[in-house]
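Provenance and format

Records in this collection were gathered into a single text stream. Each protein contributes a sequence line and a token line. The two records reproduced below are adjacent in the stream.
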Amino acid sequence: MISGSCLCGRVKYDITGKVGDIIHCHCRTCRKAHGAAFSSVARVDDNDFNLKGAEHLNAFESSPGKSRFFCSHCGTQVYAKRENTPFIILRLGSLDNDPQSQEKSHIWVSDKASWYDINKELPVYEEYES
């Protein structure tokens, strides 16, 4: 089973079905909401998303008809929801294990951070570089 949680652990979820393809969104709204170069997301059917601790969630309507749900204690973005859709947009940073999905694409690259290069090869470190 695929599961996830917020940083403080008050909000948790299990996914009983498939996690959709992984999309990296570079739009200005995602960058601002996550404080990062982009947001990695995937669709999950509403019926497959089992949420615990919903009383700890707050929501922000970041664009008409789309709300972002985050933990009111630690601020972790957990998912987004567009009105009248049968799925949530899972924020993959909240996962606790492998979503068993594949990366599909980068979107809104016309809006990407000027200081981030998608194709740049950089050194990789297992932990903090000292």
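Adjacent record:
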Amino acid sequence: MSQQSDILNELNDRSREVFRRVVEGYLESGEPVGSRTLTRELSEKVSAATIRNVMQDLEYLGLLDSPHVSAGRVPTQQGLRMFVDGLLEVQDLDQSDQQKIDATLGDNAGDVGAMLDRVGSALSGVTRGASLVLAPKHEAPIRHIEFVSLGHDRAMVVLVMADGHVENRLFTPPPGQTPSSMREAANFLNALIEGKTLSELQTVMRGEIEKRQQEIDVLSRTLIDQGLAAWADDGDSPERLIVRGRSNLLDTGQSEGDLDLIRTLFDDLERKRDIAGFLELADQGEGVRIFIGSENKLFSLSGSSLVVSPYMNADRKIVGAVGVIGPKRLNYGRIVPIVDYTAQLVGKLISDRT
């Protein structure tokens, strides 16, 4: 980030304006921007040859790229990141966009899942992109836990809450787990529950592990020293994800290659690959965050961008996130305030229910 800031600070006014107009032109049209186009738009009158020299310098710095033999340029991922961090002008939330979101989410009746499904539909409709909504986990005290094996690499945990709420979550069990070992694990956890929430149960489990860690260390040290054993730690905590607006990404006039990348993106989403880390993207501070292309491993193959913001409950605890997926040439200045407003609205609706 600091290196990009240094590069931006070192650009003179002409180079900075050329760079900004190339990026803005690309985000608007999706097409390379040429020197002749810029000669008509720049605030100072300079020749096309001068602009071409500036664009070559920007390409040398890794900020622009030439996709074809034409003279037009497009921003690189590094260039887009520098533009978003240093030159992006975030617009005020458009009143019509706000009204559409408010109208869709105005009804706070029904369960949280239905409300968040409407959030996804609203975001997708307003932005013409694909929306992501990470639903909060139910944190009522647990009455009973059950593990159900669905195959060698697929299982489901059934959580029965003290308030009568029942929640099913799919997960990938560690290798070697059998239906009988899952029953034993459920029996062990049920003996510890005693009205605890899932997070409280996790705290108890960590305490149990810490109590026995010294004993385990003593017993296992010899085996480890002899190379007969080794520690292994593999955790997985998949989140529920709501995806809306798939057709929006598949109907944007993009090339067949782009469509193949987008289909790859949705294949990843539907298999819930890397979803466990989705909330962590937004859990590093308040406000909207922007991930471009390979900056987010979930979208590294598709080259898509993600604009995401966390939402909080009444205790100011981050419990979920909302976001919009689109091509790298998203209208970031318009999307950012929409995502920010929707996240704040969802947080308020969640807080009003508690």
